[in-house]
Specification:
2 copies of one chain form a homodimer.
Chain A (H helix, E strand, L loop, with lengths): L1 H22 L2 H7 L7 E3 L5 E3 L1 H13 L3 E13 L3 E13 L5 E16 L5 E12 L12
Parallel strand pairs in A: 1-6
Antiparallel strand pairs in A: 1-2, 3-4, 4-5, 5-6
Chain lengths: 146, 146
């Protein structure tokens, strides 16, 4: 029962990451991540970024070059421990290039969250690692809203 | 000091994974992984495999289609907790196709290990997740042995 509750909290944090991504707001993305030197981020087809300074820059670049993006996240698998949780999932993405054109793609993601305790009752799961990689032979799922 | 020791043990397990990969031996790979239903594996440009049965099959397929493979692993970052550890690294790979031809490639990897305790003094870190993705603009490092 306790585990189920923790898993749900971690799933909420994972959903929060995709909400921040969809919002294309660096202020929202700032709330998702731990701001430390040892965090890492691997975006599909790009370099690995280490430290919040570098990871933040990468999000600014992505947001500046994205008109719109929608996520439909499936195949979610959560492994939660006392202070660390790993979420593996499939991002079904619909990204707008301009007013009339968009593309759909699939990205496998490994998302790692670290529990940050403020006091006995208050804590947050902050992202410390994101690894996204394009699905080679992606089949768009039959879902109307992506 | 304790943390350093744990990090070294996890790094050893990570090296053990690449040794098993280089050996192209399914028996050695079997010793690296946790044999459970909730493990996951994402090889570059392939499907996500879930459960030891499926992950094992994927390794057999890879080993049957690989003549030789050598890893030079760099950029290793370890995050170790009580029972779980995450290793992020860059695999510099030299893979032989036939007697005369080989190719070099870079793969970013997220490797997750779970601590399996047998008794108070005896434990092993077993792989529960591997996520590998090809580096798009890979620059081969100036290392003679890859």
């Amino acid at each position: 029962m306790k585990n189920e509750k923790v898993n749900r909290t971690v799933e909420d944090s994972n959903a929060g990451f995709y909400n921040a991504f969809e919002s294309l707001s660096i202020e929202k993305m700032e709330q998702v991540w731990k701001h430390s030197d040892d965090i890492t981020c691997i975006h599909p087809g790009w370099e690995m970024f280490t430290s919040w300074t570098a990871v933040r820059e990468s999000w600014i670049t992505i947001f500046q070059n994205t008109r719109s993006i929608k996520f439909y996240v499936t195949n979610i698998k959560v492994k939660a421990f006392d202070n660390i949780a790993i979420v593996v999932c499939l991002e079904n993405i619909n990204s707008g290039i301009d007013e009339h054109n968009s593309f759909k793609m699939g990205v496998f993601a490994t998302n790692v969250f670290e529990k940050q305790s403020f006091n006995d009752d208050d804590h947050a799961w902050l992202m410390v690692h994101h690894h996204g990689s394009t699905v080679a032979n992606y089949m768009i799922p039959n879902i109307s809203d992506i």
